[in-house]
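Continuing the batch. This is chain 6 of the set; chains 1 through 5 are on the previous pages. Same settings as before, nothing changed between runs. Recording input and output for traceability.
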Amino acid sequence: IVAVQATAEAATAMSKKAEANTPKAISNRIKAKGLQKLRWYCEMCQKQCRDENGFKCHTMSESHQRQLLLFAETPEKYIEDYSKEFLKGYTDLLRRQFGCKRVLANSVYQEYIKDRNHVHMNATKWHTLTGLVQWLGREGICKVDETERGWYVQYLERDPEQERRQRGKERLELTDAEMQQRQIDRQIEWGRMRAAEAAAGGSDVDGESNGPTELLRPEGDGDGGESQQPIKINLALKRPAPAPALQPQQKIKPAATPAEIGGNALARAEQEAKKRRKQEQQKQQQLQQQKKPRSAVEELREELEREKCASGRSWLSPGLVVRVVDPGRPDWHRRKATVESTTPRGARLRFLDDDQVEKRRAEEVAESRLETVLPALGGRVRVVLGSFKGRLATLLSLQEADYACTVRLEDGPYSGKTVSGLAYEQVCKLAGF
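Output for chain 6:
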């Protein structure tokens, strides 16, 4: 009996409410309301922490780290999705609860965050409520204005049916004069197009005019200008001759059009005029090409294009001094060598000893393991990349901040020209200079 009484008393004590203004009571009220500090809410995990220590423990958890890895793959997608969801919830609340009334933006936001499962603003592309309100104004979703109390918003109702009726009303409001003026403008535009086509088609074809002509009666007609002979109109089409047997490699001509058969003389004359104009244009182009000599710039451009095609993609050529960059081969790494010949993979090199004397044995090294070498100022180099590839030049100066140099070309059509801004990889030292 004593045990039963103790159990009942414990159950009664547990069921009693906490005293007012105690930490337990405050905690219960916060949990019942569903709102806690936004700074301790994780949007990716959708977890609300009660204090800073709990939030810190959550950020160090394995589940939170997995969510961060997922977010790092496509951060723009997550931010865009959260922004769309937040915007939909905010505008729906504004439209349903406030309608088209002018209301304080912060009041709408306070109503929105009362939902425990709402999307938090710190997960969207708008960092502040002011930024959101200004964006709504720019997009034409709301009418916004700023006062001493803050930003006010007014939702703009956009009903598709209402917009359609408004457009119809605008069309009905057009006066008869405006409609007639529009019709005249369309006719004028159509007439200009027809005139342009007629001018392009030519005025005379084989000495005959395309325009209207006077109908002349043959001699011997009766009095009053009336012909005694009836006018006959032949509507029969000419039958095309049977096609001959095709010979090997003989092309089949397309079927004749009504204009070619003879049913429409005007269309046939227009086609002949087009053919004649096309032939004249071709003849004029041929004469211009024959008379016009090529300029020096065109000749240089063609020469550079030929050199570019002949040189290929590799920058290596015999006679260059290069440096080997191969940490896997300590005996080669950071050593200079002379290119003896090029190979499909790279080049065959003869390494230089400390006295700059070539060794006898040649080694093949991949192109990816080689880099260019710059001589002292005034030394000879060869341009290995760019528009002047293959040209000999003299090194004039270095721009160490930009990793570039200035050279003077010594051969070719641009001999004596100074070229600046060439990268270190575009020039290479020549052996023997």
